[in-house]
Write a structure and sequence with these properties.
Blueprint (H helix, E strand, L loop, with lengths): L22 H7 L2 H5 L12 H10 L7 E6 L5 E5 H17 L7 E5 L4 H13 L2 E5 L5 H11 L3 E4 L1 H6 L12 E4 L15 E2 H6 L15 E7 L7 E6 L2 H11 L8 E4 L6 H13 L3 E5 L5 H11 L3 E4 L1 H9 L3 H4 L8 E5 L5 H11 L3 E5 L9 E2 L13 E2 L5 E4 L12 E5 L9 E2 L3 H6 L1 E2 L2 E10 L5 E6 L4 E3 L2 E3 L1 H8 L5 E11 L3 E10 L7 H14 L8 E4 L5 E2 L6 H9 L9 E2 L2
Parallel strand pairs: 1-11, 3-4, 3-5, 5-6, 6-7, 10-11, 10-12, 12-13, 13-14, 26-27
Antiparallel strand pairs: 1-2, 8-9, 9-19, 14-15, 15-16, 17-18, 18-21, 20-21, 21-22, 23-24, 25-26, 28-29
The chain binds adenosine-5'-monophosphate-propyl ester.
The site of adenosine-5'-monophosphate-propyl ester has 21 residues, from helix 10, strand 14, strand 21 and strand 22.
Length: about 575
């Protein structure tokens, strides 16, 4: 089905003149060098992401500007200026130095969205260590896998999260320190033996730190991302990525100095760092950080209370707002909003039209991945929107639709979405898996793992993924991770996991499970396995549905055929089953 084009607004109509005014001309003449010149850099030519986001403003004209408007889940409010952010992150850098942490060491954050997470994040980067943010909803298994694989030396966490993963902490020989943030004394529990108190260490750390010694190519941030096989891989980025965070913040999110920005992504995922930290702050913009979870009324309240002007969110969130009804937003003053963007999953045209109806503006979709580090394809304020399309490549990015041999396909044809390397935010490796990293580059392209097509006017349209990775509510889930957790349950013989279509979350995790001899497929057992998986993984990652089967379809070499499970679930043709061996 084709939907009517949403014509670009005339420049006279828009509330704020867009930063990018002529897409085609800019795309043709663009050079990264010109963006590099807009950043501060370090004396001597180095580059540091924290310096660009914090110190440059604190030491320049934005010293007393509010960087962070924080609202806690218990209703607490705190604000921090760029200067306060500079001092707090310096303290954290000194604290780490005092513990003997060195450049290149991995320091992981397993925290809720509290201000201390942001101070720690920038402090780690100032020291030149590598920061690894973890999704705060994770259970013990994903946390163990990531800390083990990265050889993390320090974990910064909070009392209840530490408690949740306590069982795995002894399995981590390289983990030397656990720093516990007891935000506003929320926890009355004493520190566990050997743990360090954030508050005590920070009180004794100097607020001045320096000089910063990172280069543009030093590693900065690593985010784990799921593939079809094996454990998640740590995609490693470098400080140079800030160049692209800054640029896309300016041209795609259209950030202006006057904006009040709100990114709803969790800082444990890449959107939460690239666009929940780096893009807004490198542009010197004030942002709202809301610790609470999703509730439609609470979200509208955030927009009203803080006067949010620019909002970056995700399709599942928009669909949940749609479900909460059209009347609710009418009860709030949302007139501050001027621009909305979305990422992470296909944005259905209905959601875009709903945005027009309720917020009086369409929602602008954009596309990227953990590996790409920053937005690569986008809709812009000055381009017409083709509902259902992800938009056009960011200036500086060459995207194409290719066949397996790397040959580019003409407009209209579906193929692999691929990008010409390299760009500033491109990942530099998968931690300790250089081979897998190299396999992502073929015939002069970075092959994204997404299927797409391009229309004759250069708009890109998402078709689907080429692998079995599940996208649930914008979070990628590797079926292998879930299957591994399930088979640890004593009753489970085998498990096969797929994404089942869902009207809100796009896909939910569904598991097919065969039982060991002696176990009966009862509803009680199903609930118990479900609970077991949820405790090990995380609510969104664990299966929402479990179906007991006698056996799973496998290839002759014993690999579970998830594709077939999915086809059967959806009532689709089973395709090539020549390698199937079913008992
Ligand atoms: O399949 C694409 C989907 O999400 C994947 C990237 O997920 P992740 O690495 O977790 O990065 C999150 C940062 C965006 C992509 O390979 N995806 C992302 N954006 C879109 C999308 N699918 C359709 N439309 C989008 N706009």
């Amino acid at each position: 089905m084709t939907y009517p084009v949403i014509e670009k607004p005339s420049l006279a109509e828009v509330r704020m003149k867009p930063n990018l005014q002529d897409y085609d001309a800019t795309y043709r003449s663009f050079q990264w060098k010109s963006v590099e010149r807009e950043l501060a850099w370090l004396p001597g030519g180095g580059l540091n992401l924290a310096h660009e986001c914090v110190d440059r403003h604190a030491l320049g004209g934005l010293r007393d500007k509010v960087a962070m408007l924080w609202e806690g889940k218990e209703g607490e409010e705190e604000t921090y200026t760029f200067e306060q952010m500079r001092r707090e992150s310096n303290r954290f850098a000194n604290l780490l130095k005092g513990l003997g942490v060195q450049k290149g060491d991995r320091v992981f954050l397993f925290m809720e969205r509290v201000p201390e997470l942001y101070f720690a994040f920038f402090g780690i980067l100032k020291l030149g260590a590598v920061v690894g943010p973890l999704f705060s909803a994770f259970g013990p298994d994903p946390v163990r896998d990531r800390l083990l694989n990265s050889g993390a030396r320090v974990l910064v966490t909070q009392p209840d999260l530490r408690q949740r993963v306590a069982s795995i902490l002894k399995d981590l020989p390289e983990l030397k320190h656990i720093i516990v943030v007891n935000k506003n004394n929320r926890s009355r529990e004493p520190l566990a033996r050997g743990d360090l108190s954030y508050e005590v260490l920070m009180a004794n750390a100097s607020a001045e730190f320096g000089p910063l010694t990172t280069t543009k190519d030093d590693y900065s941030i690593m985010h784990y991302t799921s593939g079809t096989t094996g454990r998640p891989k740590g995609a490693v980025h470098r400080h140079y990525a800030v160049v692209q965070h800054y640029l896309t913040g300016k041209w795609v999110l259209d950030l202006h100095r006057e904006d009040i920005y709100w990114c709803t992504a969790d800082p444990g995922w890449v959107t939460g760092t690239s666009y929940g930290m780096s893009a807004p702050w490198s542009n010197g913009v004030t942002q709202v950080i809301y610790e609470g979870g999703f509730r439609a009324s609470a979200w509208y309240q955030v927009i009203q209370k803080y006067g949010v002007t620019m909002w970056y969110t995700a399709p599942t969130a928009i669909r949940m707002l749609m479900k909460a009804g059209e009347e609710l937003p009418g009860q709030y003053d949302l007139s501050s909003l001027r621009y909305i963007c979305s990422v992470g999953e296909p944005l259905n045209p209905e959601a875009i039209f709903w945005g027009q109806k309720v917020f009086h503006m369409p929602i602008h979709d954009n596309w990227w991945q953990t590996e790409t580090g920053a937005i690569l394809i986008a809709n812009y304020p000055i381009l017409s929107i083709r509902p259902g399309s992800m938009g056009k490549p960011v200036p500086g990015i060459r995207a194409g639709i290719v066949e397996q041999d790397g040959k580019e396909l003409p407009p209209g044809q579906e193929g692999d979405l691929a990008i010409r390397p390299e760009w500033p935010a491109m990942f530099r490796t998968y931690w300790q898996d250089e081979e897998r990293y190299r396999s992502r580059f073929q015939n002069g392209w970075y092959v994204t793992g997404d299927r797409a097509r391009q229309d004759k006017d250069g708009y890109f349209w998402f078709v689907g993924r080429t692998d079995d990775v599940i996208n649930t509510a914008g979070h990628l889930v590797g079926p292998f991770e879930v299957e591994s957790a399930l088979i640890e349950h004593p009753a489970v013989a085998e498990a096969g996991v797929i994404g089942k279509p869902d009207p809100i979350a796009m896909e939910v995790v569904k598991a097919f499970v065969s039982l060991k001899e002696g176990y009966e497929p009862t509803p009680q057992l199903r609930n118990e396995i479900m609970r077991f998986a949820r405790q090990k993984l995380a609510a969104g990652v664990a299966p929402r549905e479990i179906e007991f089967v006698r056996s799973l379809p496998k290839t002759r070499s014993g690999k579970i055929m998830r594709r077939l499970l999915k086809a059967r679930e959806l009532g689709l043709p089973e395709g090539d089953t020549s390698t199937l061996e079913e008992d």
